[in-house]
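Much of our argument rests on the idea that a fold can be written as discrete symbols. Part of our work consisted of pairing the sequence of a single chain with a tokenised description of its backbone. No coordinates are needed to read the tokens, only the vocabulary itself. The record that follows shows the chain in one-letter code together with its fold in token form.
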Amino acid sequence: MLDIKYIRNNKGIVAKAIKDKACELNLDQLLDIDTQVSQTKTDLQKLQTLKNTIAKDVPRSEKAKRAELIEKGKKVGGQIKEMEPRLRRLEEKLQLMLYLVPNIPMATAPIGTCEDDNEVIRIVGLPPEFNFDLKNHREIVEQNQWAEFERAVKVSGERAYTLKGELLLVEMALHNLALKKLAKRNFQIMSVVSFARDDAFLGTGHFPKGKDQVYHLEKENQYLIGTSEIVTNSFHSGEILKESELPIFYGAYGPCFRSEAGSSGRDVGGLMRVHQFNKTEQYILCKNDPAESEKWHQLMLEIAEELVCELEIPYRVVECCTGDMGVGKFRMNDIEVWVPSENRYRESHSGSTLHDWQARRSGLRYRDGNGEVHFCHTLNCTAIATPRILIPLMENHQRKDGSVCWPKKLKEML
């Protein structure tokens, strides 16, 4: 969320961000409501001042005038009672619209509408050459009896799966590899719950839009998370931290859930696009300094690349365009890994800098050495997400007989 004062004073910049990120938001309407809120507050203050003045004048006035003043006070009180609900409605409408205002992307972000407009920064590793007929990940899994698809779907519906045997151990080893690496880099590693309240989703920017991607627990009025960022971003909500406590690094592991609404018919029947998955997420809370944010952005990306390199999977890093980065992002980089059976790169990791956009929504603040309070900066990046990474892992390391030669670093975790 952007500061309303910034929006008022930088209408052109905000309008460009709305356009470049293809947001459905009427900026003129937002500013008009903001003006109405300000005017209504001013009018209410004047009426309240008048009411207080009348209340003071009543006991000091002559008896003949007292009844007239009392009547006037009642009339003013009635006007206040009529105006207060209107102000609340306007403030609620303004708040909802402010939630939809996008963050201003970095000046060098590619302008585009979708992932096809992302720019490749670097390519690491060459796609392997095979002298035998390739198998896709599902064929490898079924040959080795490493998963159940049909039986899982019978029980839980489409996009369900069950990992078995060695592949389950591999999945656990991947997260162990990521968590140990994060611990060595001074991240506080932890497990997180898989559900949260509405305000946690609002805080990260996943709500008010995006509810179609989330499972709602109606009885508890909570939602299943699609990333640990939703939980970690709310840990310090409402607190005022000391600058000396920053930065805070979290390496959060837990099950995640996404409804995959709108993806009907895409990647059905395998491990690519599933409703439930496990994820180890990097999250950083730091002081309000763009240079420091950039430093931590590069650190998280470096860690993610190290993990992909240790898995010996060819990949590329892309600079995400404005239309692909999401409304809250200042900068976003994806890591895309090579999938041999599809002869293309597919996204496995995503790292984002959001400056104070989330912090304003979540109340994430700190006090500097001069006693001034600032909103923090927040960042997040995938460390490992399974089962998606299992696809390129198996396909790039497959043997002619259908077995898989696991990378050395991964074997050390098994």
The chain has a mean pLDDT of 95. Residues 4-99 form a domain with the Helix Hairpins fold (CATH 1.10.287.40). The first helix runs from residue 4 to 9. The chain has two domains: 4-99, 115-411.
